[in-house]
Amino acid sequence: MAEMKHMKKPDRQPKLPREPKSPGPRTHIGRDRAFKAALAKEYGVAEVPRPMQRRIQKTLDSLPDTLPVRHRPVLRTIRSMAAAAAVLAVTFAALLGINTTHPQLTEALPGLGSVFAAMNGSSTPGPMPTAEPTPRPEFQPVTVPNDGDFPGTLTIEDAWSDGRSLVLDMSLSAGDDLYSIYKQLGSWDGISLWASTMSTGEFDNDYEEETYSITVYSDSGVLQVENGYCPAFLPEGDGIFRTSWYIDLEDLEAGEELKVDINVPDVLSHVNDGGPTYTWNPEFHSTFSLPVTKSKNRAFSLQASDGSVTLSSINYAPSKVELDVNLPYLGLIEEIMPGNGELSGWPLGFYARLSCLGPDGEKFVYGTDLGSPKNLTDTEPALSDRVDLRYTFTAISELMDPRKLKGPLVLTLYEFPQPYEEGLGSGKVTAEFTIDLGSGKAYPSENYLSEGYEKDSAPKTTAERLSDASYDGLLLMPSDNSLETINMGGDPLAYVVISAPSEASGRELIVNCYLEDTVYRSLSFSLGGNYEDGSDSYYTGFRYLAGREYLETSVTIGYPAYVAETMGYVPFDRIEIADPATGKVIIPDLGTALVETREKLLGEKYKEITSASSDAESVP
Which of 316, 348, 368 has the alpha carbon at shortest distance from 545? Predict the structure, then answer.
């Protein structure tokens, strides 16, 4: 035991410094969920402004993960204070910048808030940032009570306003009466429902009278009176009838609350065209509210040119589009297409079509008014003057929700409207623009080529067209002539109208009719004169075209009897007009000249006219 007491103790191993626990990668201040939640709860701000984030994070990232452990508490304290001071200095510098744009945030900071409040001259912290408004719920369908005898229900499926229009998507469900009509017809297709009734006039005549009313009130108290497009309810199958009504509004502000009062006292049913009529008195009435939503509206100015036409501004809403265009005045369509009532008063080259794509990629064409040109004063401009026009297009469609239209807008200007084919123009194209609503830019395009149209590189005035289409001063106006009458192959043989400026009055001309290069019939006539002898005649009238007075001499030529007896009634190979004094042929073939005139005046190449002319010329 004694020996054990004096044994040497083993050497003690020196203590090694502890390895500091790794803190792991620092969380970016902008991604720290706990910090963001606390910030939002405390100050009503979901994010620290990015400049502040970057500066604080940069300072934090530049600090070492651990400070060396030394038994120098004073030095360690000084270094910690220096690091804290650096962070504070950078943070305060960042806050100075944030204070200029977000004073409500800096004034609400604990400790420093009072400092910034004093700097900003505020005795109390500024107001908290206002949170974004909660999105309004979608329109909930409204079932309108039936207080009358209609065997069905009216439902307002959707109602919305973009500030330019009020759109009501509605449905009527069928009852027993309509189902009995359906059984008689075997189909819903022949039934349509209208918000109207049959009335009797002062002369005991029956007529259809619209009896619905729609009244719209806005926040400002302005009463909007119904004025719009309210078509029939059309069958969709299984006893459901649908329609979309468009009510014109003033340009209202976003967020305004609209109060809508709708009253449909009567419903009338047409069964097929000319079929029986049924009437009911449902007394539908409802009042509901909806906000003005302009999230899809766009308005911007620009300068896009295609040839002589300039597009200067666009005001777009899903239900209505306004475009401002500057273009040259070329004269009125009626000066080269007289006698077309629907086209009277329209300037040449002013007819515009606006189109885009539907939700499934199909082409959608906006509606526009063909009644009269927009923004033209009562005083007719001089030819080639510049004219500013505002076109208004509507997206009225019972089958298409305008809010679902997509793709760029395509504005195409044609020389003439097409009266019998909605949405199409005729003649040549004068300009086309593709409009990108996202970027607010427009540029010339050539979509018209895929539809078979050509573009006139240098649009001409009506006076220039009349001059180009004349033959030594003589005109074959397409409105007065046709191939069927110029060489009809019967008795009379031909009917043709020759137009010329009034100063040509008294000019002598001769008509020669050819078969196999032989003249079988001739008739001399005088411009401005009148004459009649059996089947031969000519009469003269007057017309103003492009500011000049024109003669219109109508010539009728009788079929030669000996030709009919030997060869029958056949069209002649060609009919020419010549100057009897000089023998000069002015128009070698009236049929060919009419086709050429149509192309020069109207920009049209009719295949049926060309083929008819070829057929006439091929007759032996």
Answer: 348
